[in-house]
Specification:
The complex is a heterotrimer. Chain A has helices at residues 26-35, 66-102, 110-114, and strands at 15-20, 40-46, 51-58. By secondary structure, chain A is α+β, with helices and mostly antiparallel strands. Chain A has a 3-stranded antiparallel β-sheet, covered by helices on one side. The longest helix of chain A has 37 residues, at 66-102. Chain B is an alpha/beta fold. Chain B has 20 helices and 16 strands. Chain B has helices at residues 49-56, 66-72, 83-95, 98-101, 130-133, 137-147, 168-181, 200-209, 221-227, 235-250, 269-278, 296-302, 306-325, 333-343, 376-383, 398-403, 407-413, 435-442, 453-471, 473-480; strands at residues 21-22, 25-31, 34-39, 44-48, 76-77, 105-109, 154-160, 186-192, 212-216, 255-260, 283-284, 286-287, 331-332, 363-366, 371-373, 390-393. Chain C is an alpha/beta fold. In chain C, helix 6 (257-267) packs parallel to helix 9. The interface between B and C is large, with 36 and 36 residues.
Chain lengths: 130, 483, 389
Amino acid sequence: MTSDTQPITTYQNDVTVLANKDVYSMNNILRTAHRFSDLYFIDVQATDGTDVRILLKAKSAAGEEPSSLEGRFLNELLDGKLREIIAEESRLERDVILAHALSRHPVLLKEYEAAEAFTDPVGLLTPDET
Amino acid sequence: MNGLNRSFKGPESYRNGSSYRLLPMKFMRFRDDRYLVTSMGGDYMFLSQTKLNDIVTHKLQQTDTLYPDLLASHLIADDSSTAHLDLLAAKYRTRHSRLPSWTALHMFVTTLRCDHSCQYCQVSRVSEDRESFDMTPAIADRAIGLMFQSPSACLKVEFQGGESLLNFDLVRYIVSEAKRRNDGRQLEFVITTNLANLTEEILSFSEEHGISFSTSLDGPAALHNANRPRPGRDSHAKTEEGIERLRQRLGKDAVSALMTTTAASLDQPERIIDEYVRMGFDSIFLRYISPYGFAVKSSARIGYETKKFVDFFKRGLAYIVDLNRRGIFVRETYTQIVLQKILMPGASGYIDLQSPAGMGISGIVYNYNGEVYSSDEGRMLAEMGDRTFRLGTVHDTYEKLFLDSPLLPMIHESMLEGVPGCTDCALQPYCGSDPVFHHRTQGDFIGHRPTSSFCERNMAIIKHILTLLEDDKETASILKSWL
Amino acid sequence: MIPLAAKFQSRPEGRSFVARLTNDKSLPSPLCDDEILVSRGDEPAPSGSYQGLIRIAGAAHSEEELILGDEFSYLDDGDIVRINEFAGELRVLYRKGSYHNVLFFTERCNSRCLMCSQPPRDVDDEYLIDDILEAIPLMSQDTKVLCITGGEPTILGWRLIEVLTAVSRYLPDSSLHMLSNGRAFAYRATAKAVSQAGCRDLMIGVPLYADIASVHNFVVQARDAFDQTIRGMMNLARFNIALEIRFVIHRQTVSRLVQTAKFIARNLPFASQVAFMGLETIGFTRSNLSVLWIDPWEYRDALREAVTMLAAAGMRVMVYNLPLCLIPEEIWPFAQQSISDWKNIYMPECAGCAMKAQCAGFFASASFKYSDHIRPFDTVSQLPSFSII
């Protein structure tokens, strides 16, 4: 990562993005910023209000149009927001699946795992009512 | 339902009344408005941004045509079933099923001596000095002992160099010893060689012991000989002659070939592929050049940007598909590996595309001088002075090498589940980690994904293959026939 | 089509027994205990200590003789029958020369599939198992395959294991193919018990009608059946019991045909084989015909996609019960002559077809309703040589 140690030059197309903390989590903002760290130096600052200021400084002069860069960053933030919803909502099921995958003992469906052969505790051998 | 006998219940009785839940999923903007979404089990779907938004914000209706596909791909679940828990858990186990059997591939560097002086090879020595560069039977004995401590039911012994056959006596010794000491494992032997020194004696020994061969073929004679100089500049002719002799003696499948892409290869993928087909191979592996094999001084001459390799790869793949369309059956190996990861749930044995990293777990290297490395690339790095991936020597105990060495932390650090940039990546189920590569190019085992050329190359290739599967039915059916 | 049961004058004081047929008129009496002597036409019937006497297509020579019509002339040495004189009933349990011997276990079932060819009845029919257990020791050692069917065999509990054990002891070289909805194997111990019965070559055919629960459960008319069947299949894999996944194609399943193939490749790759099956228009299918019938011609492309996808994924694939003229030539190598000989027919349209010898043909019941696209082939088409089988 040699380029990170070079002195920072400011180019025309540096961009500041404001993200509302009430809408986007800090975790999301940082992850999103990381994604842009290939072509930009990044500075994230809290403001007095509800905004977080993200400064994107191009590493070279051949940067992207500022409006397009800002739009792309905001879209990524929105993607990050969806990721957080997914992670939050699926966490329990994910943990159950991993526990089920890695455990030697049944985590799920103990009645199926523990029943003696040809006993039918859940009653599946009886047809549904018609 | 109209027409259904009244003693039967209609389909509505079996639909779920409740709303759905989101299952773990990863997504990425693929191109235009389309998103690629992958499930925990590696199923994938392409969705529009609007659809993805609707799904995540619970606006999707059960009547939506996508609803059953989302259920079946394990991206969402509802109260109609809990089978996804078992299926996802089983797939997770399957994908990691190689872990319990631990190391199956054991590479023995029988000598560093070589008659070639290839541009991209840093490790070999053109030398007659056997004492300095050959593995001794005593070292081989220790290494064989370590190999049999691996719990794997199958043991694959690969002879590496240098030119492994310049120390054929040791090859013969290791094969005989391994067979004599075999405690019921399935043993397999592969000799990696440039075939220039193939003798009648080697042929009959290989025939007797069922040994197979892996050689290097970089393309047509001009390219191959430029990449792989040897006295007489006849490497290509020697290789071709060797392949022919091996096939006549041991059968068509007894020899496989690997190519390395150098800067000189980039504008001639078709000619390279033609050369493989001409020589009767039904697969070719379009391999990028390792950044650790060659000296810094030659890197400017033979290295290239990742983007150029990706263009080369795509052009080569298109040509191979076209050959298939014309009835010439030939596969591209990396594509085949990626396809298996995308379309089939089983564990892939390819070391560079595994998470946790394959090194040490799937393969281990016993160097000529008794040093033990976690991968062949790690050993090459050591020849350049960086011993990060050295686990110890053959005189250490098995436990020390595998449990009390840098190996476990390296493997642990490289697990994609925890790598920044990978945790959110929709391609994660199809990708892998390569700690040696990232160590060499970026200074740590994980790498900085936004600027990693490993990431750039794999992303580009996996996305390209997914695009072909999605957009082009004819190509997709050709690719699927490679599975 | 051949008849497998016959009615005759009942005898209130008569016997009921299982015995093997023999053509040997001079069998030494110690060997006659399990044998029924078969005479044909006007052949003389020597006396002996046979269990019984049957005459096919002839007038009775004695009061003991049971007379069967000409349609039973296929009966041969080594075949096994149950004769119930009390009920005036003969049933053919086993035919030595047939590749399609079926052990019919029970009429009971815990599912109630829309297209069931053998509608379940909740009756006490354990006598069927008694017959099977009596017949197995009489069967030929050369028996290649026995097919266990029903009803749902797992309903019989440990009696199923009794039969599996008997087959493994008396017919160690025979293969067993059992049809089950697989739901009971959701119980780990039940799957394990089957794996321990000692069968050398047992495969269990389990139907899966969709990749999603709501459709599968509707087709089999049972809540939770999908989950139980999936877990059952996984348990069979766990205990190394070979699994065949069976998908019957009709209007209620066809919309998930391709997706189910993909689901199988991704989730159930341990299956030994996958069978796609044409609809048999008998039983419940007739009651529900308008919601089930689809001309196979309409789904031929979907079938091709499903079959080639699974084959490409390295799975063994079969196409059952569909005539060659209704499926794309590309998947002919997967088509099996699957219909049991005793209910296999061809249509008038098949007259002169050059491919008849290689074709599955039709269920006898199909004359009720069949495709509009049946056509004879003029020339014998070479089956494509590629096949993963």
